[in-house]
Each structure stands twice: as structure tokens, then as C-alpha cells.
Amino acid sequence: MNLTLKIWRQSGSSDKGRMVTYRVEDVSPDMSFLEMLDVLNERLILEGDDPVAFDHDCREGICGMCGMVINGVAHGEQRATTTCQLHMRHFEDGAVITIEPWRAAPFPVIKDLVVDRSSFDRIIQAGGFVSVPAGSAPDAHAVPVPKEDADAAFDAATCIGCGACVAACPNGSASLFTAAKITHLGLLPQGQPERDSRARAMVEQMDAEGFGGCTNTGECTAVCPKGIPFDTIARMNADYLRSASK
Amino acid sequence: MAVTGAVLVLFLLGHMLGNLKIFLGAGSFNHYADWLRTVGSPALPDRTLLTITEIVLVLAVALHMWAAVSLARRAAKARPVKYAAKRRSQAGGYATRTMRYGGVIIVLFVIWHLLDMTFGTVNPEGGDATPYDRMIAGFQPGRWWVGLFYLVAMVMIGLHLRHGLWSAFQSLGLTRRPRVRNALRAGAAVVSAVLVVGFVAAPVCIMIGVVK
């Protein structure tokens, strides 16, 4: 496959940045999207150019490090897939592919396609934890949890914090990320003592970071590589309203 | 957004039911309009219900617009650098994308509607005619462009409510369980459709001459 890539290049946070066009030839359809970028970078290094910086770690879709907006869609158009698990067979030979970093004020660009997602860490630090000594893994039947709650909590807990929800949201809101943690802990017995203060602290931190407000467009859950359900945002709103009414 | 929107939807339901009285004839429609002015009389002064409604509606509209503008401004601040590629919607909610410009169209429509049916400024019969005569005169086939504007505005309101109603349930945290969520989502679509059909019925019937 031969491709034309239009990639966002930005040497640092003070650089204005620009789109640069590259040709990549002889790409195998079996390569992942990141491997295709590796091919480009090997060539750039040999030619003495600066390789395209992008975040990645496990490359098996579970760590949440990779992520870029491909042709205007976070992680590309393949549903429930991280960029590292997106394969070139989903693109056509001769395609022109636009590659951009996550765009949000609380996600400043560090270099090229790498953004600083510390704002997510601060949202978690604000309340995304339980303060009880959890100890080692308890027996499965020691604390009974209704099956429906256990399933919903687990679905929410699969969030890998990649930030695609923010990138896709027309409002630049971090509601799905924040709601996933609030739902995960709020549905389980261990999360009950801090349920109200958690919702309030995490929502306030999310707003303080400069994320936009949720208008329920559903773009977040559509691009989420883990398919975090939209219902989690309703649960966050309910917990937040509950804490505000106390 | 959710609370002020709910107030406006409740008003629209009442307004639509009142409009349908036009099918019961001039006497019934004018009597209903008169009743709205004199309800509670003589214990309450004239226009008590109307004045309360007007105050609540003006407040609700103002707060609704203020919330919408704040959300749009926060969104603009949260994404100072735009995407170069055209952002392609993955959620497929057409109604969702009409909310902001649709809201502006609805405001313009409401201004015209008040000038037409309440104050009679732009109505051929003027403000002194009975409500029934104003309604009939306003939608004569010769003024087809007024009818068309009404139809477009009603479709905009329908789309606005289809997303708005469901979105209000979500914002108030009522859609936590899939079963409830699906029911509320369907309910939002049904209420929006009923309101559009109910509001469009009278103008269309006047335009095609069924109601004279």
C-alpha cells in the first residue's frame, strides 16, 4: 500500500505547529497504524529528519497510551479499537490520511502527536479512589454485590484513560472519563462511604481543568475503545445532584 | 438547561392542547382564550394566570439561553486549536447537531409568532380581532410563506425537543439503567412527534381550507 499522510508537526509547546505531508510506500495491510508510523519514522531518521513523536506503550489495546485523531475521528473509524489495534487493511491503497493530536486546552501538545494528559490524573486524585484499606483480593462471596451492579461497575472500570472521549467531544468535555470512575466506585460497596464527596470533588476538578460542559451528544461513547456506556454520565449527574442537595 | 427546558415543554403541551380547540369552532376557541384571561375571576384579578405564565416563560427562556451561551463559550475555550480534518460525527444524532442554530431559529420564530398572534402587529386582522379570526387570517393560502415558516419552525422545535428532552433526562441523572434509558429515549421521541403534529395540524387545516 502507498499512502499520503498529513501529520501535525509541532516541535514543542511554544511552537505554533503545522500540518506536514509525507508519502509512505510499501505499507503492509497487516501492519498496525503505529507500525506504519514506525516505518515512516525509520525513514525520517535515516534521512536525518526528526521522527514523528507519538505516545504508545503496550500496543495491545489495554494501556491507554496511544491515541490520535485519524481523519477527524479519535482512534480512527474502526469502533471499539485503540490506534495500536487499528490495522492498515481498513484503509485503501493510495489513501490520504490526516493525523492530529487530541485537541483540548487541558491536553496541551508536548510534541507532534503527544499531549500532556496530567489533567486526567488530577481528576482521579480529586476523588477516584476508596480510602478503606482494601488489603489483598477478598473472596468473591465475602461482600455480596448484585450481578447487575457488578457488571455495570466492571464495564465502567475498563476505562483506560486514553482521552479519546475528550478528543471526540464537540465541547471538549471529560464527562465520560470522570463518569466512568464515579460509576465504577459508586456501584460497589467499598465506594459507598465517599460516594457523594467523590462525585463533587471529581466534577469540580474536571471543571477547574478547563474541560467543556457535557451536552449529551454521545460522540464520546461512540469513539471509546472500551465502549464505556453513556449511562455512566447519567450516574455521575445523579451522584453530583445528590451531593449538591445535601 | 434541563430544568428550564422542562418548564418550556410543559408550556408547549398546554399551548398545543389549547390550539386544538380551533377544531371545535370559533365559539369554543374564543371562549377558551377568554377563559385564560379571566380564570379565577372574581377571586383573582384578570390575567392572573397569563401574567404568571408570562413571567415564568420569560425567566425560563432567558436562563435557557444563558445556559446555552455559557456551554458554547466553555466549549470554545476548551478547544482553542481546531481540528484540520473535518470532525465526522460517530454518534449519528442529527437532532443533536441542530441544537444551537435550531435554538436561534426558534427564538426568531417566537418573536414573529408573538407579533402575529398575540399583538397582531403583523396579522392582517390586527390586534383587536378575535383570536379565532386572527388565526384564520394568519394562515390564509395567500400568506403561504407564513405557513411555511411555521412548518419549518415546528420541525426545528421537534428536533430540538427530540434531543433536548432525552438530554434533560440524562442531565438530571434519570437514565442510569438501560431499560429506563430506552424508555425515556422513546418517550422523548414520542412527545416531540406529538407536539409537532399537534402544532402543525391547525395551520395546515386552515391553509387547505378545512378550517374556515
Automatic annotation (TrEMBL), chain A:
Oxidoreductase listed as a keyword: yes
Ranges for domain 4Fe-4S ferredoxin-type: 150-179
Domain 2Fe-2S ferredoxin-type: 18-103
Pfam families, sorted: Fer2_3 (PF13085), Fer4_7 (PF12838)
Cofactor(s) the record lists: [2Fe-2S] cluster; [3Fe-4S] cluster; [4Fe-4S] cluster
Gene3D superfamilies referenced in this protein's UniProt entry, alphabetically: 3.10.20.30, Alpha-helical ferredoxin
GO molecular function, one term: metal ion binding
Catalytic activity: a quinone + succinate = fumarate + a quinol
Protein's UniProt name: Succinate dehydrogenase iron-sulfur subunit
Species per Swiss-Prot/TrEMBL record: Microbispora triticiradicis
